[in-house]
Design brief:
Number of helices: 10
Shape: globular
Strand content: 5-15%
Largest sheet: 2 strands, antiparallel
Oligomer: single chain
Number of strands: 2
């Protein structure tokens, strides 16, 4: 399918076009932002409306996105419907300007980290060597990740993605060390790896 063709560019940052006897790589470094409804009718896990899909229908629907493609998507979360009182509430969250400052500081931290590696521009581009160097975990945090790997049946690729996201969460928090909280939050961003659809 068209979605499956995205696997190579998501992983490698380039796409290879093959014609006749020639193959030419082209840069394809992009951010994929995608959405899907939780089932065919769209009401799975909706507290206000009943889902009319059977378990086999939900499984067939979710099977349209392969495990290897999901492995290459760093963040996937379930977004519940927004309640009316939340839309009309006066309560405000963290101001955008404050978030912007945290993001700028995190990006500067990453630029400093990778200053001697010009091909690595951010945590998402780290390879195995950089993961070992910059994503070391203490024993309790490693145990948490080990449990999640087993319990959620995560792949080796998903393991790498969790570490990269945890490193970024730590950077946003201004922490040089990746803690269990950072890893736990990164694991929460792997909602499609969990068996919540059946």
């Amino acid at each position: 399918t068209t979605l499956e063709v995205l696997r190579q560019p998501l992983e490698d940052g380039h796409v290879t076009i093959s014609r006749a006897l020639n193959s030419t790589p082209f840069p394809a470094n992009f951010v994929l932002i995608a959405s899907l409804t939780p089932c065919h009718c769209g009401y799975r896990n909706d507290p206000r409306r009943d889902c009319h899909c059977s378990v086999p229908q939900i499984e067939r629907y979710m099977a349209k996105i392969s495990g290897p493609l999901l492995d290459r998507i760093d963040l996937h979360i379930e977004v519940p419907p927004v309640k009316f009182r939340e839309i009309t509430s006066d309560r405000t969250g963290e101001p955008s300007a404050q978030i912007r400052e945290r993001v700028i500081a995190a990006r500067q931290r990453q630029q400093q980290r990778f200053k001697d590696r010009p091909k690595i521009t951010c945590n998402a581009r780290m390879g195995t060597r950089e993961l070992k160097q910059y994503c070391a975990l203490d024993e309790p945090t490693m145990e948490l990740l080990k449990f999640a790997m087993s319990d959620l049946n995560l792949s080796a690729r998903a393991y790498d993605r969790v570490l990269k996201v945890a490193r970024t969460i730590a950077d946003l928090a201004g922490s040089e060390k990746i803690t269990g909280d950072h890893v736990g939050e990164a694991i929460q961003f792997r909602s499609l790896d969990r068996q919540i659809w059946a």
